[in-house]
Fold this protein.
Amino acid sequence: MNLWKIHQKYLEKKPLLAILTCISLGFSCMLLLGVQQLKTSFEQQFKANVGTIDMVVGAKGSPLQLVLSSLLHIDTPTGNISWQEAQKLAKNPLVKSSIPLAFGDNYKGYRIVGTDTSFFENYKLLLNEGRRPERSLEIVVGVEAAKKLHLKVGSLVTSTHGLINEGLETHEEKFRVVGILAPTHTRIDHLLLTSIQSIWELHHHEKPRLAGAEEHLHNEKHEHEDEHRGDSSEPTREITALLVQFKRPLALVTLPRNINQQTNMMAALPKYELDKFYNYLGLGMQTIRAIALVILIIALVTLFVSLYKMGRERSYDYALFRSYGASHFQLFLLLVFEVFTIVILGGVLGYIGFRLLPICIGIFQKTPNFDTWLLPLNSSVLVQFILLLLGIGITSILLAIYPILNLNVSKLLKDE
């Protein structure tokens, strides 16, 4: 008696219910895995990228936007600030250390960030191969970016305006890759790092030019200003953000308020802003998780009812199998095939959907690298997922086995 062929015939007879149960089970699994990945990724990225940074300083706007763009690199910056003002802040007695950041360009959707050696020291960055940038237009690449972009030491990189791969203009100058970073399991793995001087050199040609008499008057005006302020190039230099570490706890109370009230810059406290963001995100994740659980319960109820109903409908078939020598265990195996075919297919559909969901969201939002800040699920979560599917299967079998255990062969055959 070939139980697997019998099982296939049963599925072919009524496939719609099995397909709908697989889809609903897969959809709920996809949502549950997606929420867990989002939660885990944010928590780990939060700890790893914030690190010792106490304050982020940038252009006025949304504090949360400033923090997300400068630390997690998942949003657009609020603007630029004066390099001269940033240097003045860095020399404040309450500031222990500072890290300048300058960005606004990308290479095939991966951000190019200008910084200095303090960035490497703060995040304890090591190199898999090559060296750090030492001269203009040299760049080091995060390990994940190097894999996705097929970059190696010696490769040439052409940057494009904007933070997505649809910039308005591509620079003529090319960066040369001089190093590949070791894995950090943070957003840094997806960045391309260069010096701030390289960013300035790359954008020096973007200053608007005036023609004729207007240009002459413009130059005369700046020459006159230079007599009073010295080097004319210094005030025109800008950075995107300054990451600050406090020397004393007192700075937390006084320094952000002074910057926000007395300067054209904005100070944001990353731990405070990300805690708020996490609370909002947590509410959304709880809602999605609740929806996923409701869908999962509906899928389970559908599975239980359909199995029980099919068991009742197949009572005569089971009686015939028993009369031809089939044991209770063989009928039990037939039920196991039925249940775990649906559960395994639902789980596979859910996992495939979970892997494709970030890519689909990125394409829909025109951000192809949306999934780069998501961390892979650890093995414990995947084990829990498998145990969940196993538990669903065993519970379904226990609830649907009643018609088999109470099979009255002689009565069923006599009635028919």
About this structure: The first strand starts at residue 55 and ends at 59.
